[in-house]
Write a structure and sequence with these properties.
About 20% of the residues lie in helices and about 25% in strands. The protein is α+β, with helices and mostly antiparallel strands.
Length: about 230
């Protein structure tokens, strides 16, 4: 029987593509997972055990209070109320979470940050927001818009983004994220508020700043909008 070499190559490529499609590491739900052989000292990777379905109740899939404004009397004059599987157990393993973000007028800020495990879609309910994200190396291109009630804006996975209230009234937005535990890394906090502090020489060179200014920034209190 004559072998069709073209057909064999086709099947080989399909098999290879299939292996790439099915053999992959799932997205992590935490910053890191140190390998360990002692089961007594181990934790569940996503941080949650599963309740027996027979014991589940409607309350496991319910949360009340997202209509309540957050406390914006903070340094950033903004507040993020993030609803994850910790507050709404039914979200566990579903790959979604939700946040309400409140902003004071004239500059309330959700500062530049990124989510290491999620993309985000923002819906403005009230007020006027200046929102945007910056692409990765080498372009660092800014995509931004002035958003008003009813507007949507998407922040791609892992990119630095921000929102600021540029209006004269309070602003409210709802953010949907593609992870039950998206994580958040606020850029300024991570750089200047690291524990332990990063050697000032590193930041002086990286940011083209005077060493005294770097040390002054590191001495300040860095807060999160939550």
């Amino acid at each position: 029987m004559e072998v069709d070499h073209g057909m064999l190559i086709c099947f080989a490529l399909l098999a290879l593509a299939s292996s790439f499609a099915t053999a992959y590491d799932p997205s992590p739900l935490q910053d890191f997972c140190v390998g360990i052989n002692d089961s007594d000292a181990a934790i569940v990777v996503n941080g949650k055990l599963c309740k027996n379905p027979s014991f589940a109740t409607p309350d496991d899939f319910w949360y009340s209070g997202l209509n309540v404004p957050g406390n914006t009397s903070t340094q950033l004059r903004a507040h993020v109320n993030l609803i994850t599987a910790d507050l709404m157990p039914g979200l566990n393993t579903l790959g979604v979470s939700l946040a309400r973000i409140d902003f004071e007028p004239d500059g309330g800020l959700n500062p530049p940050h990124y989510h290491p495990r999620a993309s985000e879609v923002l819906l403005v309910l009230e007020g006027t927001l200046y929102a945007g994200f910056v692409t990765s190396n080498p372009d660092h291109r800014l995509y931004s818009k002035i958003l008003k009630p009813g507007d949507l804006f998407v922040f791609p996975f892992g990119l630095v983004h921000f929102q600021m209230n540029v209006g004269k009234t309070h602003a409210v937005a709802i953010a949907a994220l593609t992870s039950q535990n998206p994580g958040v890394n606020t850029v300024a906090n991570a750089i200047f508020g690291a524990n332990w502090p990063i050697d000032p020489e590193v930041l002086t060179t990286a940011f083209h700043l005077d060493k005294k200014l770097v040390e002054d920034l590191q001495s300040q209190e860095w807060v999160n909008p939550s």
